[in-house]
Amino acid sequence: MMAAIFIAYTAIIWLVFDKLRLIPLSLPLALLLAAVGPIFAFYIIVSMNNFHPSSTDARVFQRVVQVVPHITAPGRVQEVVAEGNAPMKKGDILFRIDPQQFEFDVKRLEAALAAAEQTVPQLKSSVDQAAAALEKANVQLNLAKADFDRQTELFEKKIIAQVALDRAERNFETAQQAVAGAQAAEDRARLAYQSNIGSENTAVAQVRQQLALAKYNVEESVVRAPCDGYATNIQLVPGAVVSAAASVMPFVCDRDDRNTGVVVATFMQGPYLHINPGDYAEVVFPMYPGRVFAGKVLTTIDLASEGQLSASGLFPGASAPGTARFAVRIKLDNGDSLRLPAGTQGNAAVYTGQVQVSGIIRMALMRLTSWTNYLFFSS
After folding, report:
1. What is the pLDDT of residues 231-287, one digit of tens each?
2. Domain residue spans of the chain
3. Third-level CATH fold of 2-62+256-304+324-376
4. Partners of 299 in the beta sheet?
5. Which of 68, 142, 336, 345 falls 20 to 30 Å from 46 in CA-CA distance?
6. What are the tens digits of pLDDT across the range 80-129?
7. What are phi and psi of 236, to 5 degrees?
């Protein structure tokens, strides 16, 4: 860039003072021209890099979804329906997993649910039975207490022997223990019957949730397209075992209105601060030599990868200073009708409106880059 400016400056001086001899060249004027040239070039370059920055890292991105089966256990692929790079709609079938093992689980859990529902009346009967046993034990306790009190009174009158009193006392203690055991049995039966989530018994609710998960596995054994687009790099074949632990194919989603014709370019920290949404921008692509595409800045992203901290057991590493670049999203004016495959790279420049003369030079350089793409397209 510096060489180009000096060559142009030298050519103008040669043309004016030597070739056309429009102005006579004197020593003071020569010294002035020699001093003004580097200063002017330095001013233009600084202004251009700060107020009209360019980037060689302009890219076109596209959303790619990693297709992962949402099944809770590994399954065997039964059929692959999707064809590589063939357009598909959201919900179209990509491939099927053999649902037999999941259907077995559904039938087993349906039987378990029926059995669990049958246990609820049995638990109610157990509560009633334990309550009746407790009532009977209380009656026996009252009888044993009355007998013990009567035997104690007779013993005090020396009508009966000590043996009869001891027998009545043992019967009373046995009745007390029977009441305690019956009370514990009733508490256990009542807790088992009243163990509910909402209005449903916990055992029934647990089996019902397991059944719902088994039915979910049956539904998810048919894997569908997550969005409009196409599947690519399909290496999946029938018989392969898949699980939720790894993706099995990439699915490329079609660009929506927000992302059609959008280019992302990264800029260094200094000139990035002068870029604002709405600024005029130009983009050059090697696949379109000789063309310069106009656009506007959509958004600036005030975040770089160097500013992100992830939760881990390691200390964050320190990257080299001054290497952070910030992304700018540029919307091309005719991007809706332009074919831009994902991964397309090019050069971008943003014009902030300050120091217009340096902006004109930046525009000239962008067009020069566009024309040189004819020469270096093969590289």
Report:
1. 999 999 999 999 988 899 999 998 887 888 999 999 998 889 899 999 999 999 999
2. 2-62+256-304+324-376, 64-90+223-247, 101-216
3. Elongation Factor Tu (Ef-tu); domain 3 (2.40.30)
4. 329
5. 345
6. 999 999 999 999 999 999 999 999 999 999 998 888 777 766 666 676 77
7. -75, 135
